[in-house]
Design brief:
Layout lengths: L4 H19 L5 E5 L11 E8 L9 H7 L6 E6 L6 E6 L1 H15 L3 E3 L7 E15 L2 E14 L2 E15 L5 H17 L2 H9 L2
Parallel strand pairs: 1-3, 2-5, 2-6
Antiparallel strand pairs: 3-4, 6-7, 7-8
């Protein structure tokens, strides 16, 4: 049976519409660069407890929300070893991305990350307190605040609070946002000195 021209055009228009809709969903990339390899946590068994205590759960500020439109909340996350470009490990939301980045940091420094707390396991709590990506005056602005601490008997006994901010000029697409986020994540995660926190907890 022959299909009418109208049917062919209609189906073709639908395909183009769907392709256009998919293409309009922006992909925001985050490339976390691991610090220089060391054995600072050699022999340590660590349970990583991640908590999100943000009062404002909106990822995007007004300018970024207008620019990114259909952003799903998932980031294209990649990890780079020193001197390498990095490899994509999948889409993550903000909390999943931070958990995975810290897990890889600990392993990179020689620790063994345990799936649950237990005897001879150090509990390290990471608390995300603030996170925002915005666009203002043609500049992408990424900001974050988090706390890392060692927990003993349910209480944080040594802690470090870190705040960071990174800016990049808006060029084409999300490139500036990708660079601002990658720089921020790398700085924040690598600046948290887990080995020092464990030493301080042991001195109590």
């Amino acid at each position: 049976m022959k299909r009418s021209v109208r049917q062919v055009v209609s189906r073709g228009s639908m395909v183009l519409f769907l392709l256009g809709a998919c293409a309009s969903i922006p992909e925001v990339k985050v490339n976390y660069r691991l610090q220089e390899e060391s054995r600072a946590l050699e022999g340590q068994k660590i349970y990583l407890d991640f908590r999100d205590t943000r009062k404002d759960r909106e990822l995007l500020g007004p300018g970024a929300k207008e620019e990114l439109g259909m952003f799903t909340g998932n980031f294209s996350f990649s990890v780079a070893r020193p001197g390498e470009r990095g490899f994509k490990i999948g889409p993550y939301d903000i909390t999943g991305m931070l958990q995975e980045a810290f897990r890889r940091k600990l392993v990179h420094l020689g620790a063994r990350v345990e799936p649950a707390p237990g005897p001879d396991v150090t509990e390290v709590r990471i608390t995300l307190q603030e996170f925002k990506l915005d666009l203002a005056d043609r500049r992408w602005i990424a900001s974050m605040k988090l706390e890392g601490g060692v927990v003993q008997e349910g209480k944080v006994v040594s802690a470090q609070t870190i705040e960071g901010r990174s800016e990049r000029v808006k060029i084409l697409g999300t490139k500036g946002a990708d660079e601002a986020l990658g720089e921020l994540f790398t700085d924040m995660i690598n600046r948290l000195d887990v080995a020092r926190l464990i030493r301080r907890a042991g001195e109590r």
